[in-house]
Design a protein that fits this description.
This protein is mainly alpha-helical and 304 residues long. The chain has 14 helices and 3 strands. The termini are far apart.
Length: 304
């Protein structure tokens, strides 16, 4: 009887001190209604917490399993920014727990080893293979072709692509208005090739839906195209064309930035084009172009 009582007390403590479905829901309500975080940020934080919950498998949150989890993340090919976000998701949850629940979690703040992660990029030839494999015969195919071209030509983020409306396009002055992080807006050139694809796509779009939706890119159900759908479009087209299995929408943004630098674009202009608040974020692409220049040097310079 005594052992049974002790076991119940221990299980109760474990439940309180562990991360679980109930506490995650409460935390989600907190960051949604009290902190007012964006929908995408909330999704990322909650996804991070659910992944961590699976990893510790109902154990107490402590220094050991947090350290083990971060070691696992370090072994994966994740950007420093992503790893820092995951760490922040967990640490902020713990801070919230300690301010709102009875059982406190004593965790030391952990820093990842510093390192530079170079984003994957496609070659110009691979970009052309993706675009040339699609045409404007049917709505979905035309949309997919234009989505890929739009992301590469404007170097926009996925969230920015989802939010583009017909009214954000100016065909006369040939520019696109993008709404980025923090609702910051910027103007980027449309480009002649993208303009041609947009005109053909919009013609099919007008036949597909007469009115009622102002968003540029639509699903087959005539709703706003979601992030997950765009991911599938890019991933599937890359696989179909046997390019690489790890191609994702952001690869197009990285590729555009790298190709612009290789073509002679200066860092400050690229910063404006990408919508980076700090030029230090843009500098990651200079490391890619240095590798490119090094290869060219080795191939072409007589004293390489």
């Amino acid at each position: 009887m005594k052992n049974s009582l002790i076991k119940k007390i221990l299980l109760k403590r474990l439940k309180i001190n562990s991360i679980n479905k109930n506490t995650i829901q409460k935390y989600e309500d907190y960051i949604t209604y009290s902190k007012g975080l964006s929908r995408n940020t909330i999704k990322a934080y909650i996804s991070d917490l659910n992944d961590f919950k699976k990893f510790i498998a109902n154990k107490d949150i402590n220094d050991t399993n947090v350290n083990d989890y971060f070691k696992l993340l370090n072994s994966k090919k994740l950007s420093q920014k992503t790893k820092q976000r995951i760490m922040s998701s967990i640490m902020q949850y713990i801070d919230w727990n300690n301010n709102n629940l009875k059982n406190k979690i004593d965790i030391k703040r952990i820093d990842f080893k510093t390192g530079t992660y170079l984003p994957d990029t496609l070659s110009i030839e691979e970009i052309n293979i993706l675009l040339n494999s699609l045409d404007h015969f049917k709505f979905i195919e035309s949309r997919n072709k234009t989505v890929i071209d739009f992301m590469y030509s404007t170097a926009c983020r996925v969230s920015e692509l989802c939010d583009v409306k017909i009214s954000d396009l100016d065909f006369d002055d040939e520019y696109v208005k993008l709404t980025g992080k923090g609702n910051k807006q910027r103007i980027v050139p449309m480009g002649s090739a993208l303009k041609e694809n947009l005109v053909k796509y919009i013609k099919l779009r007008e036949e597909f839906i007469k009115n009622g939706n102002s968003y540029l890119f639509l699903s087959k159900n005539k709703n706003k195209l979601e992030r997950t759908s765009i991911y599938r479009v890019v991933k599937n087209e890359a696989l179909k064309n046997k390019i690489r299995t790890n191609v994702h929408p952001h690869t197009l943004r990285h590729s555009a930035a790298t190709h612009m630098l290789e073509g002679g674009c200066d860092l400050r202009t690229l910063q404006e084009f990408l919508g980076h608040s700090s030029v230090s974020t843009t500098k990651i692409y200079t490391k890619l172009t240095k590798e490119f220049l090094s290869e060219i040097f080795k191939e072409s310079h007589p004293r390489a």
